[in-house]
Prior knowledge:
The protein is an alpha/beta fold. It is built from 12 helices and 12 strands. It has 2 domains: 1-108 and 264-364, Isopropylmalate Dehydrogenase (3-Layer(aba) Sandwich), CATH 3.40.718.10; 130-258, Isopropylmalate Dehydrogenase. The longest helix has 18 residues, at 15-32. It binds 1,4-dihydronicotinamide adenine dinucleotide and magnesium ion. Keywords: Amino-acid biosynthesis, Branched-chain amino acid biosynthesis, Cytoplasm, Leucine biosynthesis, Magnesium, Manganese, Metal-binding, NAD, Oxidoreductase. Mg(2+) binds at residues 226, 250, 254.
Amino acid sequence: MATYKLLLLPGDGIGPEVMAGVQTVLAALAETGLAHFETEADLVGGSAIDAHGKPLSNATLAKADAADAILLGAVGGPKWNGVAYEIRPEAGLLRLRKDLGLFANLRPAICYPALADASALKRELVEGLDIMIVRELTGGVYFGEPKEITTLPDGSKRAVDTQVYTTAEIERIAHVAFDLAGKRSGRVASAEKHNVMKSGVLWKEVVTAVHARHYAGIELEHVLADNCAMQLVRRPKQFDVLVTDNLFGDVLSDVAAMLTGSLGMLPSASLGAVDARGTRKALYEPVHGSAPDIAGQDKANPIAMIGSLAMCLRYSFGLGEAADLVDGAITAALAGGARTADIAGDGSKVLGTRAMAETIAAEL
Length: 364
Ligand code: NAI
Ligand code: MG
């Protein structure tokens, strides 16, 4: 059996607590014989600032580059509010994404049957919901130049951000979305604003061309991003794979997140390009942050982090059976009534981070 090298970057706040949950699950997974891992842990974010004066050391970046996949907890917290902008904890995470070329951000929004009443929407709208948002992560308005604030002759100011996309950038994210859809329902919705943005015109044109050339069996629908936000709240189950740019993806994935209950439930994957050996750089992390308000109290929900491990098994290593086992263990633990405080209803018994991870490991 292949041995995979995992770099664990627990980070700050609840990061180390939920990462410990991953280690509990990895130990149980090793016993199944389905997968074998070598893990190494290192610092990122505030903990790295404390140790080396910057949020991501070159040595850590080199380890990230050499690893088969990276699992990251969360970075940041009030302790580092005063540090310079360039070396703030989040800069470590942004550098990892940028330097490793992690252009495809996959954010599933799944509503577990046991939690359908925890959603912001009515049960019948979200029960069985399973959407995969594919967000372009290294281009668009967050990175385009010029990006500046200048002072006008009258002393007032002018701010500019620039939305830039090239054919190649749109093609590669479209391929990720269509490939995923082929393994799911076979449906892709692409969201942009071609009615008011040139980048939207190109986005629609390129996605249409990629579809026509390579994915005849997949159904493609174009939807305007603002209408998409409305549809996500009105009738979310109409979507399966939803592909969109960096800015719209940021907003739409947060909307989708709230359909499912708690931030503590949501995993993510950030993938790079497939190289000549057929492998790709990849980082897996929960959507949530370091939750300073509950850090160190054994209260954090480890499911987003453990779900990120399941995505890692599936997308980096093709270990679908092991991934299904982890996802199934999460579903079974929830069905059995296991709840951390963030998803507990009235009268349910509340588990701590460790006990929730152990319950999932036992189900596995
Ligand atoms: P947050 O996601 O850390 O917390 C928001 C709320 O959700 C809090 O009430 C928290 O207790 C709760 N929450 C989050 N994860 C949870 C979990 N696993 N289980 C139970 N409850 C959970 O966002 P916030 O408070 O805006 O940011 C806190 C720090 O985290 C900041 O320094 C921020 O910059 C950083 N951050 C880091 C991210 C990352 O590492 N990718 C992403 C978002 C924020
Ligand atoms: Mg966001």
